[in-house]
């Protein structure tokens, strides 16, 4: 997990999930303001083999399933694909909410931490990554859809 600064210091051999609209997704897709939802890269943009750019923000949890389910599914596939032969950096702006939430879910799916409930998984994950401080939207989303997210 990391921050915007970590993605700028890219290391060879890393695959990177850029879990932030600003600046990464905007720069990768090449737009200012907001992208139209009909754009093919509206939710995510794969650049080459090693960079997955996400139009991901911490929003109201009621809106999250529509946008976040496909993003999370792609992240899990991306990590499955790359962790066999590369390290994967998952970063967001500050490295405390979106990117660690993605990593927490991946670890729970792979049984590296408990998958019983989000609360238990969060507690175990927080002992490993003490900076974890999810925003209200992402935390509410994880709590509400935990069982579904484990099946993605």
UniProtKB/TrEMBL annotation:
Domain Tyrosine specific protein phosphatases: 69-124
InterPro entries with a match to the protein in the record: Dual-sp_phosphatase_cat-dom, Prot-tyrosine_phosphatase-like, Tyr_Pase_AS, Tyr_Pase_dom
Name this polypeptide is given: Dual specificity protein phosphatase family protein
The species this protein was found in: Chitinophaga agri
């Amino acid at each position: 997990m990391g921050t915007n600064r970590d993605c700028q210091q890219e290391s060879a051999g890393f695959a990177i999930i850029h879990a932030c609209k600003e600046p990464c997704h905007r720069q990768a897709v090449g737009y200012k303001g907001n992208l139209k939802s009909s754009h093919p890269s509206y939710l995510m943009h794969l650049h080459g083999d090693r960079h997955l750019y996400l139009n991901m923000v911490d929003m109201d949890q009621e809106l999250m399933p529509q946008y976040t389910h496909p993003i999370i599914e792609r992240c899990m596939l991306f990590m499955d694909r790359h962790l066999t032969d590369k390290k994967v950096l998952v970063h967001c702006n500050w490295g405390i909410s979106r990117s660690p939430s993605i990593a927490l879910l991946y670890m729970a799916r792979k049984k590296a931490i408990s998958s019983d409930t989000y609360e238990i998984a969060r507690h175990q994950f927080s002992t490993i990554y003490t900076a974890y401080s999810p925003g209200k939207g992402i935390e509410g989303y994880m709590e509400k859809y935990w069982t579904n997210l484990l099946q993605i």
